[in-house]
Design goal:
Length: about 450
């Protein structure tokens, strides 16, 4: 056993998102979002579940912040629901919606917890989707206006903010495979949406900096360390292309003003509808990079795949969580080191990391989620190693603070440190929450 220790001031957090926990889907003049529309369409989500009530966090925010304090969190990552603030995605702000986030931020600051809001965790106002959603370039401008309004309204109490949550996931699943809202399918939809999101990322960055220069900005990127399925040259090249596509596609336009070379036949610039001057508009000199990482991805050459010539494949070796994701602790360390090497050692926050297991209370009311503890131990030990090797990681956020609505899987996948009974909405700290509390008190653990 060795001591895994963290630098003093390291931030220990947990993450959630608006649609997954808030409920109150049409209260206080909130507008409809694409996730409201998607989940209310039969056949889109397992058991046709939806986030109408979710964890009812909208009404239980004080109790929930008290639980965060009990665990000892020093950072809380949550998202702001755009249609709560602007019911149709533009125009006048909805005071009641803003008040909710006002109360949340005040309550967090009073509990000595750093608020880390995300401007967009997938709940686009449906009214904007009706104009083409992220495929419509005008939506980038709407998003920048919304970002500026948030900075003006809440920015006096924010030191930090993430612009997007997982641009790759919400464009690939929402516009390519169609398994997430708005449920569109096709490479053209994806290509257009992806480029608008990159424009929006740059526009929102500048709009927020203009309104409140002090707020540190980043995006929480979905990342998965890509490893070749075999040692052949073709699998190695495939893994590299796959990395550029899933990990770097939304990051490099911001940092470097260009898209990475991921596709076999070059960038589909026509399908993306890239115009002169666009790449400059995509630039955003982030103050930090957010990494959301759950697992590694093994990649094999796939000659039939027309765009990438690569696909996930190969034999997984680690145990699988309820999502079917392989537990592979070194993936987080390796990903952090790759970002550190490739982009000149940026400041990094782990903005999500966690696992789904269907654990529930025993007859004494205790939730013994040893597998979750084991998962976090392994990945967090990797973060400590990365810091020793020079990575500038300053925060770790467990996904998630509490069990919640896991998108197309509904309520079946429990990621929380806190167990939620979805009938009674009762919250209960799992063993993992108690273990995390101890880790936070000691700023480390035995491994
Ligand atoms: C990420 C999402 C988050 C949650 C986890 C399990 O892709 O950002 O909302 O669903 O996966």
């Amino acid at each position: 056993m060795a001591q895994v220790a963290f630098p003093s001031g390291f931030l220990w957090g947990a993450a959630t998102s608006s649609y997954q926990i808030e409920g109150a889907w049409k209260e206080d003049q909130k507008g409809e979002s694409i996730w409201d529309r998607f989940t209310h369409t039969p056949g889109k989500v397992d058991r046709d579940e939806n986030g109408d009530v979710a964890c009812d966090h909208y009404h239980q925010l004080f109790e929930d912040v008290a639980l965060m304090k009990e665990i000892g969190l020093t950072s809380y990552r949550f998202s702001i629901s755009w249609p709560r603030i602007q019911p149709t995605g533009k125009g006048k702000l909805n005071r009641a919606g803003l008040d909710f986030y006002d109360r949340l931020i005040d309550e967090l600051l009073m509990a000595d917890i750093r608020p880390l809001p995300t401007l967009y965790h997938w709940d686009l106002p449906q009214a904007l989707e009706d104009t083409g959603g992220w495929e419509n370039r005008d939506v980038a401008g709407c998003f920048a206006d919304y970002a500026a309004e948030i900075a003006k309204a809440l920015g006096d109490r924010l030191s930090v903010c993430t612009i997007f949550n997982e641009p790759w996931i919400f464009t690939a699943l929402g516009y390519l495979s169609g398994t997430h809202a708005p449920g569109k399918q096709g490479f053209g939809h994806f290509a257009r949406a992806a480029h608008t999101v990159c424009l929006a990322q740059g526009d929102a960055f500048r709009a927020m900096k203009a309104a409140k220069p002090r707020i540190e900005l980043g995006t929480a990127f979905s990342m998965s360390h890509c490893e070749p399925a075999s040692d052949t040259g073709s699998d190695r090249e495939a893994a590299e292309r796959y990395h550029r596509f899933i990990n770097a596609f939304f990051l490099e336009p911001a940092l470097l003003g260009r898209y990475p070379d991921a596709f076999l036949s070059g960038l589909p610039a026509q399908e993306m509808e890239i115009k002169p001057g666009d790449l400059l508009r995509c630039r955003a000199d982030f103050d930090f990079i957010g990494i959301n990482l759950y697992t590694r991805t093994l990649v094999a050459a796939a000659p039939d795949n027309p765009h990438l010539g690569a696909e996930p494949g190969g034999r997984r070796e680690g145990p699988l969580t309820d999502m079917g994701w392989e537990v592979w602790p070194s993936a987080l360390h390796d990903m952090i080191m790759r970002i550190t090497r490739d982009y000149n050692a940026p400041v990094i926050e782990v903005t999500e990391n966690g696992c789904a297991y269907a654990d529930g209370p025993d007859k004494f009311g205790r939730v013994k989620d040893d597998q979750r503890i084991e998962y976090h131990r392994g990945y967090i030990a990797g973060v400590a190693r990365a810091i020793e090797q020079g990575a500038r990681v300053r925060a770790y956020h467990a996904w998630s603070l509490m069990d919640n609505f896991e998108w197309a899987h509904g309520y079946s996948k429990r990621f929380g440190l806190i167990h939620v009974d979805f009938e009674t909405l009762e919250r209960r700290l799992k063993d993992s929450a108690r273990w995390y509390a101890q880790l936070i008190r000691r700023n480390g653990f035995e491994y």
